[in-house]
Write a structure and sequence with these properties.
Strand content: under 5%
Distance between the termini: 76 Å
Number of strands: 0
Structural class: mainly alpha
Order of helices and strands: HHHHHHHHHHHHHHHH
Largest sheet: none
Number of helices: 16
Shape: globular
Length: about 300
């Protein structure tokens, strides 16, 4: 949401080109400070951990994991302070792109990168040991994460969060209240982290699901997200009255904007889940092939 414009009540002229779209950034906003702090802590943690690589059991953070983390931060940046955020108050479809970036791009990328160890190394040693102990299998935080990322719980939290914030009264409340809008984004991202955890299984709480179970879990998420996207696309009326009074960027009226937003949630959003399921299928096939190579063969009796 455009922080300064929202406070002052200033209106924005309709955009007529995507070149103008790329010039819209909300750099003077709370998410900028939070993202800057988290990225700085990550870079410092990588430096400290990699500078000690080779000593004891400390392993360096690979370029692959750093790249995934930076891609995740790029998705967070674009969705929280970039054009998708600045214009989300004006266009419903951009708000849906913002939500998809938070839930289906940034969250899985950061989990696959498994940055917990890096952030631990960014802390003072006494704080690091305390938090690491809490994250251990018998630690309080570790037990809480295991409960929240239990597949049934994670799926329920994710779907409930998604549907709750798309109820018109909740959506309208968030779009008109800055603090509530931040809470909405925090809940979307947090619920997505919980949802993707059983699939990615990063340290310190590894997923206990087999690849077939992860595949089934991912496919089960297709139905609720597709149903919500289809409902928004095909409902035939304007669900969110706020957009009837916003600037008509690119000539889209409220109905066309809503249909486009629902279609984005329906099709590209589910493509991400299908893509994740495809990767899991090949991971399953690879693990089975590897196991078969090492499985002892029984010779037939002569």
């Amino acid at each position: 949401m455009p922080f300064l414009l929202h406070i002052t009540g200033e209106s924005r002229e309709p955009l007529d080109s995507f070149a103008a779209f790329w010039g819209e950034w909300a750099l003077m906003s709370p998410p900028t400070v939070v993202l800057g702090f988290l990225l700085g802590a990550y870079i410092f943690g990588v430096y400290r951990l990699n500078s000690r690589a080779g000593a004891g059991n400390t392993a360096p953070i690979s370029i692959w994991r750093i790249t995934l983390t930076l891609l995740g931060f790029s998705a967070l940046t674009f969705s929280l302070i970039g054009p998708a955020d600045v214009l989300a108050e004006d266009q419903f479809f951009l708000h849906m792109i913002q939500h998809l970036l938070l839930t289906l791009v940034a969250a899985p990328l950061l989990l696959i990168a498994s940055p917990v160890a890096v952030y631990l190394w960014s802390l003072p040693s006494d704080v690091r040991y305390t938090i690491a102990g809490s994250l251990a299998r018998r630690g309080k935080t570790g037990r809480l994460i295991r409960k929240l990322t239990y597949p049934k719980a994670a799926m329920a939290i994710y779907v409930l969060t998604m549907y709750t914030w798309h109820v018109p009264v909740m959506y309208e409340a968030a779009i008109h209240n800055e603090a509530l809008h931040y809470l909405e984004h925090f809940m979307f991202f947090g619920a997505a982290i919980l949802f993707w955890w059983p699939i990615a299984g990063p340290a310190p709480v590894r997923s206990q699901l087999t690849y077939p179970q992860r595949l089934l879990y991912t496919m089960l998420a297709l139905t609720p997200s597709a149903a919500l996207g289809a409902l928004i696309t095909l409902v035939g009326s304007t669900l969110y009255e706020h957009y009837e009074a916003t600037p008509l960027h690119w000539g889209l009226d409220a109905g066309e904007d809503q249909s486009l937003g629902g279609l984005i949630m329906w099709v590209p959003g589910n493509f991400v889940l299908v893509g994740a399921a495809t990767v899991l299928f090949f991971k399953w096939y690879e693990s089975e092939s590897r196991a078969s190579r090492y499985r002892p063969r029984v010779r037939a009796e002569p």
